[in-house]
Design a protein that fits this description.
homotetramer, 421 residues, alpha+beta, 3-hydroxy-3-methylglutaryl-coenzyme A Reductase, Chain A, domain 2, Alpha-Beta Plaits, five-stranded antiparallel β-sheet, 12 strands, 22% strand, oxidoreductase (chains A, B, C, D)
Chain lengths: 421, 421, 421, 421
């Protein structure tokens, strides 16, 4: 039994369906003809119909009706700045939690938070956490830092030229900053840090991005900075790239955990022992005991930080408010802590990489805009508050899941609420 | 200048808005009265109206109309198994790419793939990658492994009892397997691996989950396994928890990268040099040169694996087909490789943690169901094919972004396609 | 101030010493003549003298005397199986701690442990930890797992052939096991797990290695396994490599943390409150408070597991007992935990990757052999006990440093004991 | 076979030696009497004899003679500033490689490098790499950055006070810098960066440390800084700790990889195709092919960076020159790259965390001092050059091992050179 049984199992499973030769056949490239979809930037009734004509079989008219419904088709062009090859909209159910009391540096008041998900029990769980937190006087939150990054890479023949390049950049930094900031009204280049690996130099360009999440803004600004370098720097350069796959854009990274990328927020609440017992059905000690094991699990499985399910809260909030759902990959890292404070329970989350905007991206689409309006955080001046709400929501989720697991309720909640499937 | 300037900048920014005392005030807990939303499992016109009555101010009737539109409200109860406290649906625009030719172990044929996103340029970019891949004979893909995990934790007084517990589990494994599998028609417990850290034992319980993504299934099965242990095991136990925060559920982890959690798929295509030049507007060598730098960036920034933006493709596909968008956090890790093959370019992705189902979760909601129907992958027997499609889509995205960055087109694409904002 | 001040500082520092042109000159390759040292496997007085003739200027006769002292030169050939190009021995001071009481699965009794280091305060600190632990009844320890790994890699043209290869390996596993085990009396091939990334297959070959640390043993055995594959497997293979840089040999890795490489040991002691106060000069609560912060630090800085300074104990023990000091890189990861047990303090360490042998490597050199003899753990049948001692020593170090930092004594100890420098 | 076979195997192994009850007995704490070693700071003949009296049985007189040999005992007190409870010295064999030509920013010339190890084949392998590099014109090396860090932690009641604290530190930074630098002639506080996780603030204090490795220096300086804070800062503080387990001292961390801790050096050489063939017995293409697989292995196993065996070179050099061998744990991370340059092979290493000094630590002990003298790098003004040598040595090791594995020679070398055991 030198080969693990699960490997053998899996091979049997494959073999069960195919004999060797057919598989080989099946996996070969093919030169069969095909006609590709013509790309469409501006969505119209006609363009949508044309796509659907192609999609019928396997899809049906009912499928078309579900995506290209009358409300969507009343003005398909409103989506043109957000998508190409438009065929309709997918309807993601939205639930509401609240009031969630937040005493934040930027967000302040009692919020109702829209959450879009198809996972049963998720909204109920966050709602429970929000109730416990609000009942305990609300969540204190503070935006600690902001700074979206792009990290262009520059390749040289050798280490010596890489060094000369760094020196040139340091000397020319004011002009470079001007070039970058010339592309944007709201973006400010806060710092440029060179990272050298022999003949390759990455520049960590860190920006504040006003009320936008800012990824496009920093791309365009950094591109201008790079082009200014390319135009004026006389150190012989083999190549430059707008992004050296270093910034952590759309992916979890330790750089993000250590230095942050996006907005960094801490949120905290001290739950009274009574609330833990009545609202959450468990005890402070039980939650602390589990927190210890959960922390051990996070280490042993090699997570980035230690938390339970930031991704659930972030994905639901991001989708409901027109944020970039793919950024959940980079945002869902950080730290959850629980500690005894006398008979009460201190609970805290810190998320170093929240990527949200109150303008730009999907925020101006009607239903996403509605999501921001429910929060009262649409438009200029609200992105920092939105980031604090995001962290506060994550804190609610952490409280609820730790309570549920410590009390042994976790499974039951999922069984009951997903009961119809 | 011992304090980094960005720290000083950030402090000024905070100070600019507040004086010290008001901040302190602002961040205190508050005992003001509040009435919480009454939780609602079954959505009705009345329940939705009631919530909206609460949400008006700051939200408007137009906001309500955008979420609780007539199509949505025609049958609000259809969402009840997927959400609580329902107030409507958020409409995420869907674009289509294809045909994407896949010669997979499970998926086979020319697919049109729906992608839901609000990020301009994303669909266009993936469409370009799909065209290049299909033009080159299509993508070979294979599901290599499947196995959703839960990792309950058991706490003992000491190491010795932890050891006795492991021994008991090994002895009783057949009964435990029966207990777990008794809760599910489709789930099979493939392996149980104990991980001991002194007095704490985690059991890595690995299941195949049929055509469901399977998180609920493995939770319920593992709960039964744990309750069987709790009922029969005589080794004195201090506590057990259904999940020791070890499985990597909803978060990126090295456990996931090393051993996989969910479905593991490799997808690959060899692009002809001609396609790289005509379709992608760059050269094989330019893509290889960039790939080397991108790989360096992935190491230096501490990513899990090395890839560019799996999260974009996964989030868009997950949302469009009723998958759990929060799972993007754990799914968006893995490896992208590009290598020379004569004058052509070998491109490969391997994703160890794809979490998808062709049944269950959000897959039966009308617009999500339509997404699966467009693929022809709804219902029983399709989950493995869906996982292969997910990997193939990610490969398209990797090809397109590497081409764009290597050619210097990346910024321009984002500028043009998000042009209206 | 967009460029961080430390970057500017560093550039000034470089510039202070050189002007640009001289640097360029200085860093060019040179074709000047040189004569290389002739390699010597068998050390003799003559060979040592010959090397030293070369080394005089800059080194002196006193330097030669310090390395090639009479004791060393009495029998230089005794080192020939451990080193090439021998010029003498470096004398690393050894201190002793103990008695350290261990109630282990394998190690049992009161041990005196030799530790070789040049870092002042290290031995004193570990001695203090040992005293506290022994005073509290001793350390319980258990070898939980053993399994040194090699991970050869096999490269194919494509995914399909990689799959056929895996199937072939599974089918032929008994013969392959025989081939591997035919090279060694003590090594047993425990498991072979294939990891596929498209066209590349890694085989995680896991061995028990008797009383040797075993790296050479598993290399030779795995090489035989690979050659058997190469000779008989008909799946077309592009290349194979004895190690795919996957096993974690000589480097920290999450694979090592998650699955272990080498011997995995847990060691634990419950310190009485009285011992914490009298011996360690702090309180249980103070240690717990610090442990919480230390755990947070480990997460935020991206460590592998959470511990304070396993490396100190391991390096000192490895050097004193003829182990491979380079393995400290992979061994010094794992988990330290401290928890309240009533008024007492539960302390535990788990090290997943201890690489030690009681035979082989440097263990038979005279002074290293003496180190093992002091422990009473030289020769056959002692490696598991030695691994338990290693973990127990690490536990002593963790106790002492956490106590020192929590009490504010850490700095003072280092100031006093390194006082002469 | 739900339980992996290796788990069952391991349990059998344990069970084979013990029955359950005896194990329990064996692992209990014991109150048996013991007398501890009296700690000794100043080593004398008498103190050494006294220890040995205790160690006889199990150790023998021969063991004592091996450690407490006449040369060592001629002046035992010379070790007193480096160790406590001294019982003698362990003799680690030293081999020499060279000449290694280095064209560095700081190190310049042809070096002979002493390496202390008991691993057969190690010195021969590095010697081969050195020959290939020197033959190709030598290694270009540059110290890119230096900065040893300490990260004290400060704990507050809440986030708000943590914020006030950061503000206070920023305001008082000049005084704090003076306090820190008042303790040291050579250390300079380069930057202080606050990292906030809710109520806990870490200060990343980064120093240059002159020619010392500097860990003690930065501890003492940071302690003074902390005490100045504690004395003057009026923000209510719950506790402070000299180190929040954040700096990466004695352990691998992503912080170290991303921002460096210690000296950061890049070293590079372009090997001619002829040298690769004649000296290394392989081809440029074969080395590149393997490098690609090795890079994949580094990702999939979750290493920090990508390299083969920095630890071997570092441990051998550190021990031979009186550096802290435990620092291998943190130093042995970084990046090795190999790329085609026409028909030649560009090879590069970057190590972000080299911890070496040319003064302090063990550098003034006679045999360690001899090691530095062989390099010509003892005393003031040489630490940067020593760091460049360390990186250059690692590069030699990478070249040699990649060549050996790509050529299939790796196993044979280990078989032959460890032939006597």
């Amino acid at each position: 039994m030198t080969i693990p049984s699960h490997v053998i199992e899996m091979l049997k499973k494959v073999r069960g369906r195919f004999a060797a030769e057919p598989i080989a056949q099946r996996m070969l490239p093919s030169d069969a003809e095909f006609t590709t979809l013509r790309p469409q930037r501006n969505a119209t009734q006609a363009s949508v119909d044309k796509y659907w004509a192609r999609l019928h079989d396997p899809a049906s008219q009912a499928d078309q009706d579900a995506l290209a419904d009358p409300l969507t088709m009343a003005n398909p062009d409103q989506f043109s700045a957000n998508i190409e090859n438009f065929i309709g909209t997918v309807k993601v159910p939205v639930g509401i939690i609240g009031p969630l009391r937040i005493s934040g540096l930027n967000a302040n008041g009692d919020f109702h938070v829209p959450m879009a998900t198809t996972e049963a029990a998720l909204v109920a769980s966050y709602a429970r956490g929000a109730y416990a937190a609000t009942k305990s006087g609300g969540i204190t939150a503070a935006l600690l830092y902001e700074g979206v990054i792009r990290t262009p890479a520059f390749v040289f023949d050798n280490l010596f030229n890489a060094g000369l390049f760094v020196e040139w950049v340091v000397r020319e930094i004011d002009a470079l900053k001007a070039a970058a900031e010339g592309t944007t009204r709201h973006g400010k280049l806060v710092s440029v840090e060179p990272i050298v690996d022999n003949n390759v130099v990455f520049l960590i360009c860190r920006y504040t991005t006003g009320d936008a999440a800012g990824q496009n803004m920093v791309t365009i600004a950094t591109n201008a900075l790079c082009e200014d370098i390319a135009a004026r720097c006389t150190v012989p350069m083999k190549a430059w790239y707008i992004e050296g796959n270093f910034s952590g854009d759309k992916k979890a990274s330790f750089l993000g955990l250590v230095t942050g990328r996006g907005r960094k927020v801490s949120a905290t609440v001290t739950l009274s022992g009574a609330v833990v017992e009545k609202t959450l059905g468990t005890s402070v000690q039980a939650m602390l005991d589990y927190a210890q094991v959960a922390n051990l699990g996070s280490h042993l499985s090699g997570q980035l930080g230690a938390q339970a399910h930031f991704a659930n809260g972030l994905a639901a909030l991001y989708i409901a408010t027109g944020q970039d759902a793919a950024c959940v990959a980079e945002s869902a890292i950080g730290i959850t802590r629980m500690e005894a404070r006398g008979d009460d329970l201190f609970c805290s989350v810190t998320l170093p990489n929240i990527l949200v905007g109150s303008v730009g991206g999907g925020t101006s689409l009607p239903s996403q805009s509605a999501g921001l309006n429910i929060l009262g955080l649409k438009g200029e001046g609200q992105a920092s508050a939105l980031a604090e709400v995001a962290a506060a929501v994550c804190l609610c989720g952490e409280i609820s899941i730790v309570a549920a697991i410590s009390a042994g309720h976790f499974t039951r909640a999922h069984e009951n609420l997903a009961r119809r499937k």
